[in-house]
């Protein structure tokens, strides 16, 4: 599983994506642009005690 947000790492935008992200943030009240770019099927670390 790869892509943005993999392994719990921060997901960031490229400078050219910032304008569209700002427009969507103003319209929806959250960063819908970046949210749409993060895969739902991604690996994240398991921090539960063993």
Automatic annotation (TrEMBL):
Q: Where is region (Disordered) located?
A: 1-20
Q: Which InterPro entries match?
A: Nucleotide-diphossugar_trans
- Xref: Gene3D superfamilies: Spore Coat Polysaccharide Biosynthesis Protein SpsA, Chain A
Q: What is this protein called?
A: Uncharacterized protein
Its taxonomic placement starts with: Eukaryota, Metazoa, Chordata, Craniata, Vertebrata
